[in-house]
Structure to design on (639 residues):
């Protein structure tokens, strides 16, 4: 076969649009298993070295992590120092078993044992052991004691990727993400869209390569491309870039309108750095600022001062525009060690969002104090996630009011900001009239997941989890209609708002405020503009 | 429910596991770390019919799967066996506190 004959492209599903051309890097150590075993003595030496390096790496991670994470990492270190566990592995090396095989089979045996435990907590430990297994294997295989170096702009390929790993990667030089499994509705896909990183999921199996072309629009991955493939790829990228450029021109135009009504377009941010996106400045405000990133810092739970500075920075950026900050929405698919409960059989239906915060006043009150102080600095609104009943909102309001009174009594500038709730539990959408608050924000991702009974992180349900399902739209219309009658503003901040295909339906549901990723702002404004000029607006 | 007694060359003791989730990673790590501070050979078991396991092995201690409210039996053999059993009983009965034991 000639080198310039085009290899067929691997096809997956789009999780985030965009284009990436760069070195192809695999993250999963278990995949590149080519390793030539040496003599039993060499193997013992290699394994001892790998265990030693792993111990050091984990100890470093533990020191940086703090809190509950440290305890879990300490378990891994303890296992590496457990002679009853380690010695039999070295014994099998003497009998000629290669180091990686001996190590894997010992760990796999433990993992299988934990997997069959009836106790959810013990089951969850099996992923810690898999992590430990892979860490040592990575060192044995690569002969390197660090995770593979990721060159700038690389197309990163993995089986799946936890959100924490995504955040560790330096995306400042571009790059893309190609997942063999994964799902477009996962948390990591959401992060990729927010950062404008192209991502394709469910690629199946992919051979190794040096260079890759990732097309997030066509959902294709081309490996070791020839000149013709590169040419076509660059042409598609150029078309995409031009449509982005014309979208940006649209951003500079006055506000979007539809049927004579102004449509407010706000942005969602995951962290303060998202405000650096070139399009962010054109937003009518921040419709959703997530605060979970504050929980994953190296120092564990953030103190009041650090939170206050973060909120203040965002309010200063927004100037007079509104900023809606959502209180910690941990739990579900966003576990935070030391905060979210371990071993829940059904975390999406468990102690998450406001439920968790109300059960952890030690964490919640610190956040509310920081928010009450920040509220005097700008146009702040605060919303509570995952609210089921009006009583939860009222409890949170009482706690918040007490905090404000207390701060003021101590002479500290603080006010109670406007309070609202996320509407994402179907019960809240059905009984929307029960909630007395200043605004509603529809979280369509979770609302769709709960209405359709589809875990949004489960890729196998991709076709079922359709946010345009009439049942989902009916609930959205119900909330919007209640808002109109009661004079309470209603916005939608889920992925639907960033999806041009969903815009007509949302406008027909009487929604007039949408909060989107900064990278989608131009496209959504353009979509509304086209609809407004008779292009399918009905 | 704390008791120790000398039984032949062994020092033995019993203590109730009051930890809410039983012998999980955190308690197991603390118990093995403490056990390793002693020269004595230390074994534990979570029921009278079970095999004794090495209290210095975190893999074995986790494999006990000791549920909350089970009784942990401890036996130690060696020069500092008395101190070892006392320290382990202290740790388990105080529900694995975060101070350095």
């Amino acid at each position: 076969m000639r080198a310039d004959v085009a290899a067929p492209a691997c096809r997956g599903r789009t999780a985030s649009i965009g284009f990436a051309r760069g070195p192809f890097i695999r993250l999963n150590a278990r995949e590149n298993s080519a390793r030539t075993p040496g003599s039993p003595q060499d193997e013992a030496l290699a394994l001892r070295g790998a265990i030693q390096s792993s111990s050091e790496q984990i100890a470093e991670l533990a020191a940086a992590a703090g809190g509950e994470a440290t305890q879990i990492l300490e378990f891994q270190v303890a296992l590496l120092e457990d002679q009853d566990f380690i010695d039999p592995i070295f014994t099998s090396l003497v009998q000629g078993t290669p180091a990686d095989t001996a190590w894997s089979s010992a760990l796999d045996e433990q993992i299988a044992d934990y997997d069959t435990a009836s106790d959810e907590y013990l089951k969850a430990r099996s992923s810690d052991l898999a992590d430990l297994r892979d860490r040592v294997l990575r060192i044995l295989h690569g002969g390197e004691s660090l995770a593979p170096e990721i060159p700038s702009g690389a197309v990163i390929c993995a089986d799946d990727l936890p959100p924490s790993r995504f955040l560790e990667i330096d995306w400042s030089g571009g790059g893309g993400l190609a997942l063999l499994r994964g799902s477009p509705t996962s948390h990591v896909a959401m992060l990729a869209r927010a950062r404008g990183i192209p991502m394709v999921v469910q690629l199946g199996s992919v051979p190794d390569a040096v260079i890759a072309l990732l097309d997030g629009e066509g959902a294709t991955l081309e490996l070791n491309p020839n000149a013709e493939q590169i040419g076509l790829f660059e042409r598609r990228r150029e078309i995409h870039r031009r449509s982005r450029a014309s979208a940006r021109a649209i951003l500079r135009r006055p506000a979007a309108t539809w049927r004579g009504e102004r449509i407010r377009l706000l942005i969602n941010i995951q962290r303060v750095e998202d405000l650096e996106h070139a399009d962010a400045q054109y937003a009518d405000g921040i419709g959703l600022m997530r605060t979970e990133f504050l929980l994953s810092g190296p120092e564990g739970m953030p103190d009041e001062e650090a939170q206050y500075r973060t909120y203040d920075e965002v309010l200063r950026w927004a100037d007079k525009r509104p900023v809606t900050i959502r209180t910690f929405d941990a739990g579900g698919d966003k576990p935070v060690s030391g905060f979210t409960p371990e071993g829940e059989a059904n975390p999406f239906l468990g102690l998450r969002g406001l439920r968790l915060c109300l059960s952890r006043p030690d964490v919640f009150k610190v956040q509310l104090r920081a928010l009450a102080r920040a509220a005097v600095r700008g146009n702040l609104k605060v919303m509570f996630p995952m609210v089921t009943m009006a009583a939860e909102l009222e409890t949170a309001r009482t706690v918040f009011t007490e905090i404000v009174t207390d701060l003021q009594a101590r002479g500290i500038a603080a006010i109670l900001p406007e309070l609202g709730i996320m509407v994402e539990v179907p019960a809240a959408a059905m009984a929307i009239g029960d909630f007395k608050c200043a605004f509603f924000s529809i979280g369509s991702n979770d609302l769709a997941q709960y209405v359709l009974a589809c875990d949004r992180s489960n890729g196998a349900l991709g076709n079922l989890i359709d946010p345009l399902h009439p049942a989902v739209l009916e609930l959205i219309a119900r909330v919007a209609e209640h808002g109109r009658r009661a004079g309470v503003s209603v916005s939608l901040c889920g992925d639907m708002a960033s999806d041009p295909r969903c815009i007509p339906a949302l406008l027909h549901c009487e929604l007039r405020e949408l909060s989107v990723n900064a990278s989608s702002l131009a496209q959504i404004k353009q979509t509304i503009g086209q609809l407004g000029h008779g292009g399918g607006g009905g | 429910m704390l008791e120790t007694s000398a039984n032949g060359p062994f020092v033995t003791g019993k203590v109730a596991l009051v930890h809410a989730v039983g012998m999980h990673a955190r308690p197991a790590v603390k118990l093995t770390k403490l056990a390793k501070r002693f020269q004595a050979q230390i074994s534990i078991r979570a029921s009278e019919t079970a095999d004794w396991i090495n209290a210095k092995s975190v893999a074995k201690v986790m494999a006990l799967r000791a549920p909350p409210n089970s009784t942990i039996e401890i036996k130690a053999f060696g020069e500092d066996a008395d101190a070892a059993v006392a320290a382990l009983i202290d740790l388990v009965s105080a529900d694995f506190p975060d101070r350095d034991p």
Observations:
- Chain B has a mean pLDDT of 86.
- The CA atoms of residues 22 and 56 of chain B lie 18 Å apart.
